[in-house]
Structures are given as structure tokens and as C-alpha cells.
Write a structure and sequence with these properties.
heterotrimer; A mainly alpha; B mainly alpha; C alpha/beta; B: mainly alpha; MetI-like fold; 2 domains; globular; disordered C terminus; C: alpha/beta; D-Maltodextrin-Binding Protein, domain 2; five-stranded mixed β-sheet; 13 strands; 16% strand; disordered N terminus
Chain lengths: 330, 271, 408
């Protein structure tokens, strides 16, 4: 047996043509030798990431926390007046804003709907991709990739055109089908506004989910699936008991990411508000923060809001974070 | 689900996702007067390449090279760093492991809206303003949390006993890793790489404040075309510009995507 | 009073920053000290807004007259604010002269980002110059920090097949629009959220968005004059236009070109986009005749308080505000600070109308909060409600309250 603790001694050998039969789910606990060993190895491996994060984020984050307790506006940014300590005033301004709770509720609802739709559609599409003929699979993955690669400014402009009340292809198409959609405004009604926003957000986010999940699916062992099928497991059972556990780590990180993104979605909402949406009825956290802080150059308030949103995100994803903690304990 | 049904569904979905992209390309070939009209033009008959020649300027080329330098640097550095970290948290137990995982998760959650003024100040202090290195450092940090997480998921999904088996067969741990685990990781590296590529390629807030006005990355170049105040926006030009900005992403993906579906993967697991 | 203290602080911190930077930056050998010459960086807004010949002229003259090397950098409108915000207070990075949109500039003048240029403006002609509305926007109390650079005003374009002559008053205009209005065809195309144009009705009847009462900004939409203006525009919305209620001021020439509108209002440069053979333009008429005070789009330029070459910056700014330089802008169709440039317009209906409209053009309230308020899209929402036929007095009262709380 080669020396497990050392990487350098053994000359390279041919890779095994037939590894020992394995089943999925073997985890670190199967490797007691490494699990208990004390070594600086893992720390060395982490070092580059830790250094990069500290270099790029430690100072800005520290400053953000400090600024959240300061009156820090344009004059402070330009250096023409010193910042002033204001205690919790920024947080108070935020939490006593009459609109904030409506915006939070709206954002959570929007986030829930969009993240779920994106994950369900994305996972379904990734699974579908494994069942397609090569030609169709290439066509679908190319379409998704093109959509993903489309610059945001072009994507938003095109979507706005498609739903435009006067020139929109969608109104034109519906009118051709015999419905009276001439001049129909999709954006002035808040519900219809969020429908359009959801279409766009899901369209933009799904490619990323499909590519991530599809690449995770390539790790699922065909053999195990076949064996399960022989044992009489149905399609759903196979998905539930074999596929899902394998892609779970990737699925969960992608889900968390979708929640984070959809909770503070900005570009799509901001752009649609400029194209006919009524801002006071359609503001979500992203646009709300922008108006409350950044557009007024009130960086103290903006920092407080950013930290508040961080806490909100942690609360929303707390279930996941806890399960993660248990898993990490293992 | 029958193969034919799956294929039909696949084609419908492909059309749904490609349509806005098609509309961008279509508009790029149309004369400005046809780009917005109550009767849409679905096929650019009578269109031409004039929009492309309007936007294919030396400033586009400068921006292209700048963006390529920044983005490739970010992708390579982020993948290497994230890969090492994923290996550590996935294959080793050590004190602080849980803390590290949690920190990465929280870093991912931090809203970045108000950070740019401090990041500017910081790079200014280090003399890294208007440098590829400075901008890339900020981008690497922005994509690292996700790439670490993604790759950790992939390393977790690869049975450690595959490596052990290889080691039993006489591989060193390093060579076992590179011969067995690494190929299985390829799809994960590709997925995270494309993610990092797109993030760095499309970012513009930091690029605006960190780089000086004469050195524009591609998104800034494109915004310059699109956001006009005292003249009408040249929409076909903007769409042509967008096509040019999207092309390198697609080329990059074409170059790496073979890895994602590569036979290596199923081959190794199937044995 | 409050401001002079700020200005003093600005000066103090500028000195402090200069002191720091002369230690840390070694690459700029003679950044300070020299009375003459040096290098001046000018940031112009928009990729093409200032015509290139003006830039060439500026570089040549600055070199010839003051031995100054001028570097001009053009900043896209979308990126201007974040760039100016981060660099304006930073001596090592700040441009010496910056152009900002006339609604963006107030936040920076109030924060002490610009140097006092009142003497320079007075030397050029002060009160005798045009665009006085934009002087107010660039000033804090009686001190000018950002001078008007140029403006563009909005004019009414009409299809000569439908309209014989320009209406005398706004009421005539509405009547004319109503007579031309039919299903699928607007007499006068005015989008329901096009507040930048609709606000001219309010100005024309003598109304205001908000005024400063000596200690705070107060919404003025409910004043009798403002109400008359809002009611007049509501009349037009209901009888004279088929434009969608969610349309803004974007692409208003498209329905005109498609034969779906007899008249529309847009900035003068829209003339180049008209595809009709028979058309002309007039200035939006006032309530009692003459030209209505339309909403002026334009820019102000200021000298960064953190610039370490204030002398050179003053010299270059003087060139940018000189008659020769401004003439180049006038020839490109922009309204300049020199009233005599309006004469250039003679014979060209668009330029004539533009000059007439700009004469009394108005800008938004000079509150430092205005730009942020504009981002809330509240004005769009208000005109949307008016266009939809809501009770004008109620709407005005509701938005007065919002404006008063937002601007202070």
C-alpha cells in the first residue's frame, strides 16, 4: 500500500482500468487516516482563498459596518466634511420608513416565486437534457448559452420591446390571434408588472441553473440507475433516491444563490420601472435600497440597509445554513 | 417519457430561450427606422452590416483586449484558488473547517451595493487604481465564494474510494487525484469557469470607478453606445455591439464545453 | 452661513489632500506651483454630446494662450455619477473640470465638490448671459459653483399636411390636437408618463414644482397657477392624444414617422430623425401667447475643489465659456450662454423654435435632493394619474406632500 501521508515518494503508476466497484455516498468518514491526521496541509490549500477575500473585502466591509453608524453622504465622500457618529439613526430611518415592510414582504414573495420557478424549471431542463438526442441537446444547450451570454443591457432592451404597449411583438402576436391587445399596457398594473419581471428573471437565471445541475448530473452513475431500474424502482423513485442525493450539494448551493439574487433583484425591476412600471407600487428591496441610499449618496444609510439585507438573507436561508452545519459536523 | 416527446419539448424550449437573442441579432441588421415599429420585422430582409461597421471601432478593440485580459486572469486565478479550497474542505477534516464554510456562505450573501466607494479608496491607497491587477483582485473575490461552493459539491460527489482504489493500485495521492478525481471534476470546473467568466465579463459598476475613463471594459463601451442624452440611441448599433460582446463568451464556452459532456466522466465511474 | 463654513472645510481638506498627495505621488513632477501651464483634464458627459471641433479648438487655444495641455475624456451618461462621486474629492485622480447634467449638479455643489467661480462668471457677463435658469441650479445661495455649459430645449414638430400654422396659445393647441385626434391617430402625441414634456404646461400657466421659502422646499403643485396648467394638460391627454399611458419621452418621433400623429414634442435634435417630406416646427405656445417656458435639458461645468491646478482650470473654463467655443456648440444646434447666438437660428424653423423656447426655459427645483427624487419616478406616476383622468386637485395635493418631504 502506498504511503498515504506522503505525496511524493511513489512513482506514477498507470491509472486503474477498473476501479473497485463503488457505490455513491462514500464520504470523508470512510477515510479515518486523513480525518484524524493533524497537518497544515488543508490550511495551505485554503490560504489563497482566504488571502484573496481578506485583501479585497476586509477593509471595505469593515468600513461598511462603521459607515452604517455614521452620517456619511456626498460631502464626507468628497472629503469636505468629516463623518459624524449617529448611533443607530440609519437603522431607525430604515425600519421606520412606512414603505419598508411592504417592500420586504413583496420582495420575499417575489424571491420565493422566482427562485422556486427557476430551480424547478432549471432542474427539469437539466434532467430533460440527459434524455435528448445529441442534436436536440446541442440546440437546447446552445440556446441557453446564448441567452446567458446576452449582455444585460441588450436583454433588457429586447424584453422591454417585446412587451412594449405600442411596438411590442407580444401585443402584435396576441392581436393577430384575434385578441384585442392593441396598446395593452403590461407594466402599469403591478400584478402584470411582476408577471413580466418574473418571465425575464426566470429566463435570465435558468441557463445558469441548467448548466450547473447538468454538470452535476454527469456524476450520477448510470450503473446504479440501471441496477435500481432492474430492482423495479420507478422514474421518480430513481430521481428521488439516487439522482437527488448526488446532485444535492450543487443543487443547494445554486438554490441559495438564486435566493440571494432574487431577494435583491435590481436591474430588471429598475429597467421595467423606467419603461412604464409605477415605482411606488413595484419597488423591491434592490430598487428600494438604491433609492433610499445610493441615489441620494447617503452611504451611511446604504450601508445600514446592506447589513440589514444580509441579516434578512441569513434568516430566510437559516434552515439551509443549519442543515449545512450538521452536515459539516459529520 | 418517450424520446420523441422529450425531443419536441426540448426544441420548443430551445426556441423560447433563443427568441430574445434572435431579436437582438435581427435588430442589429435592420435600419434604425425598422427597429421600432408597430409592425414588427421578423426577418431582416434588406438589412445590412452597417450597424456592425458603425460600432467596430478601435475603441471596441481596445475594450475587447482589456476585457479579455481581466476575465481570463479572473477565471484562471479563481478556479485554481477555489479548487484548492474545495479540496481542503472536502477531503480533510481540520479545526476551523466549519467556520470557513460558513464564512464563505456569508460572504456570498453580502450586498455589494455600497462597497464600491470603499473598494475604490482601498485600491487608491495601494496604487492599484486603473490597473488590471486591482480590478481582477476585486472580481476574483466576488466569484470565489460561489466557485468554492460549486467545486466542493463536485469533490463531495466523487467517491473518495475511487482515489483510494487508485492508491491501492499504486498511485501516489497526488497522481491518484490528478488521474481519477480531476477528470471527474471537469464538468464542475467548466460550470464554475463559465460562471466566473460571465461575472467578470459583464460587471460594470466596479469597472467604472476603478478604471479611468479612457480604459473602458466592454460593458462600459456598450453602455456608452446605449445611454444617450442629447441624441437618439442607435438601437441597431447597440444590438450589433451586444452581439460582438456576446461572441467571445460563446467562443469560450465552445472551447470548454466538450469537457462537460466528456465520455471520461461516465467512463471512470462505470469502469 | 452654513455654506461658507462648508466651503472653508472644503478648502482646508483640499490643502490637506494636496499635502498628502505631493508626498505620495511622485509621478507628477510639477503638479502644483507653476502659475502658467501644466495639464488640465476635462470630463465631458456623453460620448458625442460636445462636438469634436469644440474639443479640438479648446486644445489648440489652451496650448497657444496658456501653454496648457488639455486632456478631454468623455464619460458615458450612465457612468458619470458613480465616477464623479468616487474621484471628485481625490486630488490624485480628480479631473480639473467636470460637466454634469443640470439635475445632477446640485448634489455636488451643495456637498462642496466645486470651486467658487462667481468672479469668472461675472467677468464673462454675469446677468447679461442667457440660461439664467441654470445659474440657479449651479449656485448655492449667491455663490456660483457650476456654470451653465449649454442647453437644449424641446420644440413641437408638426406634419404640414395636417397643421397649417402654429397655434397661438396652449388652449388653441389643445383644440387643434382634438380636431386631428381620431382612433389610432394622435392629434398631439404625449405619453402618459412623459413628465419632462407635460411639465411645460404647468410652467406655461405660471406654476412651479416646488419653491424655496427661505428655509425649506415646499411643493407648489396645488397653487392656482399650477392647477390651471395641470388641468390644461389633462384636457390634452383626454381629447388630443392616443399615446399609451405608459409611454415616456423615448422615441416620440416613431408614431409621427408612421403617420400616427400630427404633432409631437421633442428636443431639437429629433429633427434629424423625421422621415416626412412636409413638416416644420414651432415653440410650444404659452398660455397667453408667445413661447411657453419649457423644461431645459442641459449641462453645467464646474472646477473640482480638489484640483491642484486651480489657475489652469480657471483658464480652461474661461475658454469653454468663451464666445468662440460656445459658437461651435451653437452651430451644432445647442442653446448657449450667449443670447446673440440665438440669431444664428434665423431661417431654420427648428433652431428658431428652439431658441424661442429656451429663452425662458425652466429647470427643476435647485434642491440637492432633486436628482434622487427624480430617480423615484414619482413625476412619471403623477402624470400617469393625470393622464388617466384623476381629480387634478386631489392628485396635486397628494404629490405636494411627497415632494415637500422628498426635497428637504
Amino acid at each position: 500500500m502506498p504511503n498515504v501521508a506522503s505525496d511524493s515518494v511513489v512513482p506514477p503508476a498507470a491509472p486503474p482500468r477498473a476501479p473497485y466497484p463503488v457505490h455513491l455516498g462514500h464520504r470523508i468518514e470512510d477515510l479515518p487516516t486523513r480525518a484524524t491526521r493533524r497537518s497544515i496541509g488543508p490550511y495551505l490549500l485554503l490560504l489563497p482563498v482566504i488571502i484573496a477575500l481578506i485583501l479585497a473585502l476586509a477593509y471595505p466591509l469593515g468600513r461598511q459596518i462603521i459607515m452604517s453608524f455614521q452620517g456619511f453622504g456626498l460631502a464626507q465622500q468628497l472629503g469636505t466634511a468629516p463623518p459624524e457618529w449617529v448611533g443607530f439613526a440609519n437603522y431607525r430611518t430604515l425600519l421606520t420608513d412606512p414603505a419598508i415592510w411592504t417592500v420586504i414582504a413583496r420582495s420575499i414573495a417575489f424571491c420565493f416565486v422566482n427562485a422556486s420557478l427557476t430551480m424547478v424549471i432549471g432542474t427539469a431542463l437539466a434532467t430533460l437534457m440527459t434524455k435528448l438526442s445529441t442534436g436536440v441537446r446541442i440546440a437546447l444547450s446552445t440556446s441557453l448559452l446564448f441567452a446567458w451570454a446576452m449582455p444585460v443591457i441588450a436583454a433588457m432592451t429586447v424584453w422591454e420591446w417585446l412587451f412594449n404597449s405600442e411596438y411590442g411583438v407580444i401585443n402584435w402576436l396576441l392581436t393577430q390571434l384575434g385578441l384585442d391587445y392593441t396598446g395593452h399596457s403590461w407594466l402599469t398594473n403591478p400584478l402584470s408588472f411582476f408577471f413580466v419581471a418574473t418571465v425575464i428573471v426566470v429566463w435570465m437565471s435558468v441557463p445558469f441553473v441548467v448548466f450547473s445541475v447538468y454538470s452535476a448530473l454527469t456524476q450520477v452513475s448510470e450503473e446504479v440507475l440501471e441496477a435500481a431500474a432492474l430492482d423495479g424502482a420507478g422514474g421518480w423513485q430513481r430521481f428521488r433516491h439516487i439522482v437527488l442525493p448526488t446532485i444535492m450539494p450543487v443543487l443547494s448551493v445554486v438554490t441559495v444563490l438564486q435566493i440571494i439574487w432574487d431577494l435583491r433583484v435590481f436591474t430588471q425591476i429598475f429597467y421595467l420601472q423606467g419603461a412604464g412600471g409605477l415605482a411606488s407600487k413595484t419597488d423591491l428591496l434592490g430598487t428600494f435600497i438604491y433609492r433610499l441610499g445610493i441615489s441620494q449618496s447617503d452611504y451611511g444609510l446604504a450601508s445600514a440597509v446592506a447589513l440589514f439585507v444580509l441579516i434578512l438573507t441569513l434568516v430566510i436561508t437559516s434552515g439551509y445554513v443549519r442543515s449545512l452545519f450538521k452536515e459539516a459536523d459529520a | 417519457m418517450s424520446k420523441r416527446l422529450a425531443n419536441t419539448l426540448g426544441i420548443i424550449l430551445a426556441l423560447l430561450w433563443i427568441f430574445p437573442v434572435y431579436w437582438m441579432v435581427n435588430t442589429a441588421f435592420l435600419p434604425a427606422s425598422q427597429s421600432r415599429s408597430t409592425t414588427p420585422t421578423f426577418v431582416p430582409f434588406g438589412g445590412d452590416f452597417s450597424a456592425f461597421s458603425r460600432v467596430l471601432t478601435p475603441s471596441f478593440m481596445n475594450s475587447l483586449f482589456l476585457s479579455l485580459r481581466v476575465t481570463l486572469l479572473v477565471v484562471v486565478v479563481a478556479l485554481i484558488f477555489a479548487f484548492l479550497a474545495a479540496l481542503a474542505v472536502s477531503r480533510f477534516r481540520f479545526a476551523g473547517r466549519k467556520g470557513f464554510i460558513l464564512t464563505i456562505l456569508i460572504v456570498q450573501m453580502i450586498p455589494a451595493e455600497a462597497l464600491f466607494i470603499s473598494q475604490y479608496k482601498m485600491l487608491q491607497g495601494w496604487g492599484l487604481l486603473n490597473s488590471v491587477a486591482g480590478l481582477s483582485l476585486l472580481y476574483v473575490a466576488a466569484v470565489l465564494p460561489f466557485t468554492v461552493w460549486m467545486l466542493r459539491g463536485f469533490v463531495d460527489g466523487i467517491p473518495a474510494d475511487l482515489e483510494q482504489a487508485a492508491m491501492i493500485d499504486g498511485c501516489s495521492r497526488t497522481s491518484a487525484f490528478f488521474r481519477i478525481t480531476f477528470p471527474l471534476l471537469a464538468p464542475g470546473l467548466v460550470a464554475s469557469g463559465v460562471y466566473a467568466f460571465l461575472q467578470a465579463w459583464n460587471e460594470f459598476t466596479l469597472a467604472t470607478v476603478i478604471m479611468n475613463p479612457s480604459t473602458k471594459t466592454l460593458p462600459l463601451w456598450l453602455r456608452g453606445l446605449a445611454i444617450q442624452s442629447n441624441q437618439a440611441t442607435d438601437w441597431p448599433g447597440v444590438m450589433a455591439g451586444s452581439v460582438l460582446v456576446a461572441l467571445p463568451v460563446i467562443i469560450f464556452f465552445m472551447l470548454v464545453q466538450g469537457r462537460m459532456t466528456s465520455g471520461l466522466v461516465s467512463g471512470a465511474v462505470k469502469g | 452661513m452654513k455654506f461658507s463654513r462648508m466651503a472653508a472645510l472644503a478648502l482646508a481638506s483640499t490643502l490637506a489632500l494636496t499635502a498628502c498627495s505631493s508626498e505620495s505621488t511622485t509621478e507628477e513632477p510639477d503638479a502644483t506651483g507653476s502659475e502658467q501651464g501644466g495639464e488640465i483634464t476635462v470630463w465631458l458627459a456623453g460620448e458625442t454630446d460636445t462636438p469634436e471641433p469644440a474639443v479640438t479648438w479648446l486644445k489648440t487655444e489652451a496650448k497657444a494662450q496658456y501653454d496648457i495641455d488639455v486632456t478631454v475624456e468623455r464619460i458615458g451618461w450612465g457612468d458619470l455619477l458613480s465616477r464623479v462621486t468616487t474621484t471628485l474629492g481625490d486630488t490624485s485622480q480628480t479631473p480639473d473640470i467636470v460637466e454634469l447634467g443640470n439635475t445632477q449638479v446640485q448634489a455636488f455643489t451643495h456637498a462642496g465638490g466645486f470651486a467658487d467661480i462667481t468672479p469668472l462668471w461675472d467677468e464673462l457677463g454675469g446677468d447679461s448671459l442667457a440660461l439664467q435658469g441654470m445659474v440657479e441650479g449651479g449656485s448655492v445661495e449667491d455663490t456660483l459653483y457650476a456654470a451653465p455649459y449649454y442647453a437644449g430645449s424641446r420644440v413641437v414638430f408638426y406634419d404640414a399636411a395636417d397643421v397649417d400654422e402654429a397655434p397661438e396659445t396652449l388652449e388653441d393647441l389643445t383644440e387643434l390636437a382634438a380636431s386631428l385626434n381620431k382612433d389610432g391617430h394622435s392629434g398631439f402625441y404625449l405619453g402618459g408618463q412623459d413628465w419632462r414634456n407635460a411639465i411645460s404646461w404647468l410652467f406655461a400657466y405660471g406654476g412651479n414644482i416646488a419653491t424655496y421659502d427661505g428655509d425649506q422646499w415646499v411643493g407648489q403643485l396645488s397653487s392656482p397657477e399650477s392647477l390651471a396648467g395641470l388641468e390644461a394638460v389633462q384636457e390634452l391627454y383626454q381629447t388630443g392624444t392616443q399615446a399609451p399611458k405608459d409611454a415616456t419621452d423615448a422615441d416620440t418621433w416613431v408614431p409621427f414617422n408612421e403617420g400616427r400623429a400630427s404633432m409631437f414634442i421633442a428636443p431639437g435634435w429629433a429633427a434629424g430623425l423625421i422621415e416626412l417630406d412636409q413638416w416644420s416646427a414651432f415653440a410650444l405656445p404659452g398660455a397667453e401667447g408667445g413661447a411657453a417656458p419649457v423644461f431645459l435639458g442641459g449641462s453645467n461645468i464646474g472646477i473640482s475643489a480638489a484640483s491642484d491646478n486651480q489657475t489652469g482650470a480657471q483658464q480652461v473654463m474661461k475658454l469653454m465659456l468663451s464666445e468662440d467655443y460656445q459658437l461651435i456648440l451653437a452651430e451644432a444646434g445647442l442653446t448657449t450662454i450667449y443670447p446673440q447666438h440665438a440669431d444664428l437660428a434665423a431661417g431654420d424653423p427648428v433652431k428658431e423654435a428652439s431658441a424661442a423656447a429656451a429663452a425662458d426655459g425652466k429647470i427643476t427645483p435647485a434642491s440637492p435632493q432633486w436628482a434622487a427624487f427624480e430617480e423615484t419616478k414619482t413625476m412619471e406616476e403623477m402624470f400617469f394619474e393625470i393622464a388617466n383622468g384623476g381629480d387634478v386637485a386631489e392628485i396635486a395635493a397628494k404629490y405636494d406632500e411627497i415632494i415637500t418631504s422628498a426635497l428637504n
